């Protein structure tokens, strides 16, 4: 479905031993139908439950396509995604949350759009989260749209597919934690890249423990959004653009 080249799927995972094996088995089945070559890159974010061991076992017989990056301490899901994006190899890079609330097979929906896009982001259909997480996400996305001047919704959806050439134009990635998605969409729009959002299924979390939803991390994320917006205005501009920096 994608043109010749390698597709790298980044999976951030913290204590996801109960879901990572299934996701890797699914990826081994789906990714060959999307690209001639593929790589699975698991970023083990300080797991203490043997997530990395389960990942290796799930790749038995094809372990040359698996790459593991390990954080000694938990850094956060989107820090893990950013590290995975920096390390990914191939002409196409995708990422999917490691908690099992998205299906690898739904990357097919995004791949159909990449022929006329540089970044394809999922938009959760019937979000399967507790009400308070939906409210937090809604407030966060509203703040991003206001601060960054973006028209997109559900920017923190954990299913995306990006062309390598587009990712390189977005480099260096400056945001940390919750700011990564805002940075990707902001840079794509300011660089006049083609951005598409498409509705994708969102499934209930059946294993593991949820993170997020606490007031302190939410306040910190909003503060980081403001600081990143200031850094982008002063230190980053689209490739080929001259001064002044984008405001």
Kindly summarize this structure in a few lines.
The protein has 247 residues and is an alpha/beta fold. It is built from 8 helices and 7 strands, in the order βαβαβαβαβαβααβα. It has helices at 17-34, 51-58, 77-87, 107-111, 131-148, 164-170, 180-190, 215-235, and strands at residues 6-13, 37-45, 66-71, 92-96, 119-125, 159-163, 195-201.
Architecture overview:
The chain has 247 residues and is of the alpha/beta class. It is built from 8 helices and 7 strands. The relative contact order is 0.16. Strands 3-2-1-4-6-5-7 form a 7-stranded mixed beta sheet, sandwiched between helices. Helix 5 (131-148) runs parallel beside helix 8 and helix 6 (164-170) packs across helix 7 (180-190). It has helices spanning 17-34, 51-58, 77-87, 107-111, 131-148, 164-170, 180-190, 215-235, and strands at 6-13, 37-45, 66-71, 92-96, 119-125, 159-163, 195-201. It has one domain (6-235): Spore Coat Polysaccharide Biosynthesis Protein SpsA, Chain A, CATH 3.90.550. Strand 1, helix 1 and strand 2 (37-45) form a beta-alpha-beta unit. The longest helix is centred in the last third of the chain and has 21 residues, at 215-235. The model is unreliable at 242-247 (pLDDT under 50).
């Amino acid at each position: 479905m994608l043109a010749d080249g390698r597709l790298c799927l980044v999976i951030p995972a913290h204590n996801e031993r109960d879901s990572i094996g299934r996701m890797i088995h699914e990826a081994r089945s789906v990714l060959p139908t999307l690209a001639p070559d593929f790589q699975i890159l698991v970023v083990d974010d300080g797991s203490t439950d043997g997530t990395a061991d389960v990942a290796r076992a799930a790749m038995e017989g094809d372990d040359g396509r698996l790459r593991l990056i390990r954080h000694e301490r938990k850094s956060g899901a989107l820090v893990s995604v950013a590290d995975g994006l920096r390390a990914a190899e191939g002409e196409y890079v995708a990422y999917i949350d490691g908690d099992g609330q998205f299906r690898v097979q739904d990357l097919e929906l995004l791949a159909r759009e990449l022929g006329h896009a540089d970044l394809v982001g999922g938009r959760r259909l019937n979000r399967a989260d507790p009400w308070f997480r939906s409210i937090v996400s809604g407030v966060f996305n509203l703040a991003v749209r206001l601060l960054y001047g973006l028209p997109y919704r559900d920017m923190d959806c954990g299913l995306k597919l990006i062309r390598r050439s587009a990712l390189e134009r977005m480099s260096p990635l400056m945001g940390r934690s919750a700011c990564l998605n805002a940075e990707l969409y902001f840079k794509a729009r300011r660089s006049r890249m083609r951005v598409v959002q498409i509705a994708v299924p969102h499934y209930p979390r059946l294993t593991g423990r949820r993170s997020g939803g606490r007031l302190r991390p939410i306040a910190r994320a909003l503060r980081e959004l403001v600081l990143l917006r200031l850094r982008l205005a002063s230190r980053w501009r689209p490739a080929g653009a001259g001064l002044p920096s984008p405001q």
